[in-house]
Amino acid sequence: MNFRYYEIFYTAAECGSFTKAAKRLFLTQSAVSHAVRELEEKMNTRLFDRTGRTVRLTGSGRLLLQELAPILASYRKLEERLPRLERESPLKIVSCITIAAHWLPKMIVRFQKEYPDTPVEVEVVSAASAEQRLREGSAELALVEGVLMREPYVSRVFSSYEMHAFCASGYRSAAESSISLCSLLKEPLLLREPGSAIRNTFDSRLLLEGLRPEAAWCSVNSQALIEAAKAGIGVTVLPDILVRRELEEGTLVRLEVEDLDLKNDLMAVWHHGRCLGYAAEKFLNFFLYPYFLQ
What we know:
Layout: H1 3-15, H2 18-25, H3 29-43, E1 48-51, E2 54-57, H4 59-88, E3 91-95, H5 97-102, H6 104-114, E4 120-124, H7 127-136, E5 141-145, E6 153-168, E7 178-179, H8 181-185, E8 189-192, H9 197-208, E9 215-219, H10 222-230, E10 235-239, H11 244-249, E11 252-257, E12 262-271, H12 278-284, H13 290-293
Parallel strand pairs: 3-4, 3-5, 7-11, 8-9, 8-10
Antiparallel strand pairs: 1-2, 5-12, 6-10, 6-11, 6-12
């Protein structure tokens, strides 16, 4: 049975008149009468007693009205929410650690000021896990660093960072503040784990020279490497943004390494074969504001 018929019945019961119900629903009086008659035939019972221009519910009609009231109330509530459903649908993001620590919080704060009805769910994962989340559809956007993802993914670069070698302020003398790439590899190296964007960039640069690093320390935690470098255990290679405080405090210094230029791009990535939702498209627009990312 057409759900519209139940709306017509409910309105007729409220108005006590088919004519008044027709005016409220912008229908003809005959259309209202037809809908009610169809319901009565379907239920095999009379729903209204017709008395002149007025109608009054029968016992069956009152029972149907009681059943319909909560259903129609939910339906009308849903109709009111329909224009907002897209805004209320959560934005699911996966992010690498570096972006999550230094860019993402500011992005989300600004986004939610403009779109307060849109919840944002963030999972901090490795680049490999981010690709998996996009592939299986459990995330709409991935914020990653390093190498651009290939098809079927679309990538938009929104910022970048440089990487350098760092050591404790007293680790080397002032005369040794600049060294060759080969000399760097003779130092105890405090490096991120293989497979991370930071490590891949460093390893790829060495590979061009036919070199391979041996790590004295290998960690998934950049802060652990920073603390080891501050203690004078060795030299770490990390993004400049991760050691700003240590450089300002003088607990770490940058070690100039000849022919070592390292840079990673930061990207928003999504699956080309899937349509981006309202929230994801709005969030991507924030990458058009360079001042916001500073």
